[in-house]
User: Which sequence fits this backbone?
């Protein structure tokens, strides 16, 4: 007498399947249009549980697809608020590599594709977004907690052995000096400049224009289209249809990864 339901923990712990079809079901004589899903916060490493997704995991899948000669097109479906810079860069690098092999790369943005989720959209043939997609957020921030006082409240202390005053610059066991904070800020600024460069180069926007729509601002899909951050409003089916037209294939399978 109740609605059909599934416990959250059972849903989260669903069987992991990188390929959502059995290998035996793949017709090796047909061309493949691959749809790769990026769901959740982008982190480093190998993980994909619906809440967070590893940059190495997605990069590995794209690299595997690049070796398959039957793969004629790739649609990257993004539903991510961003996350790790290195994780995002790992994904983008593999997208660039498969694109260099002549495989069209098309982006389909879900409800959110911001920050790192927008970073991995660069170097693509076309970007589709929904009218209410939250995207942009072209910005970078860093956070290093100082846990020293909190730890001391519980009687915890650190002993450190180091060869340079700033060897433990990334440690949470002490406050940072002004010089160290400046170094960290310069590192973040360089990443931000890299982000601006990616957007300017791949969206054909000058640096002044990019800076005006960047600085961490988020945009709805309709505004992102006006600002030149996306190419067209549309959903996943639109992105797949465009990819098919781009490849010109006739007999094909759509496989979801």
Assistant:
């Amino acid at each position: 007498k109740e609605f059909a339901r599934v416990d959250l923990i059972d849903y989260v712990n669903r069987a992991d399947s990188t390929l959502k079809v059995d290998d035996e079901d793949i017709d090796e004589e047909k061309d493949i249009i691959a749809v790769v899903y990026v769901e959740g916060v982008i982190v480093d490493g190998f993980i994909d549980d619906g809440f967070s997704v590893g940059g190495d995991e997605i990069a590995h899948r794209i690299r595997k697809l690049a070796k398959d000669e039957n793969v004629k097109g790739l649609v990257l479906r993004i539903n991510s608020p961003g996350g790790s810079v290195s994780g995002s860069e790992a994904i983008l690098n593999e997208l660039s590599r498969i694109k260099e092999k002549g495989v069209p790369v098309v982006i389909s943005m879900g409800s959110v594709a911001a920050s790192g989720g927008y970073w991995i959209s660069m170097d693509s043939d076309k970007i589709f977004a929904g009218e209410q997609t939250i995207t942009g957020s072209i910005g970078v921030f860093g956070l290093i907690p100082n846990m020293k006082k909190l730890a001391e409240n519980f009687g915890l202390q650190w002993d450190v052995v180091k060869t340079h005053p700033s060897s433990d610059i990334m440690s949470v066991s002490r406050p940072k000096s002004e010089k160290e904070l400046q170094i960290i800020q310069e590192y973040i600024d360089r990443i931000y400049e890299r982000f601006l460069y990616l957007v300017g180069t791949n969206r054909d926007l000058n640096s002044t224009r990019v800076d005006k729509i960047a600085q961490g601002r988020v945009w709805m899909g309709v505004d992102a289209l006006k600002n030149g951050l996306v190419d067209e409003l549309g959903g996943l089916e639109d992105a797949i249809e465009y990819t098919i037209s781009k490849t010109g294939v006739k007999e094909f399978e759509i496989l979801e990864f």
Remarks:
- DSSP finds nine helices and ten strands in the chain.
- The CA atoms of residues 122 and 232 lie 15 Å apart.
- Residues 17-22 have pLDDT under 50 and may be disordered.
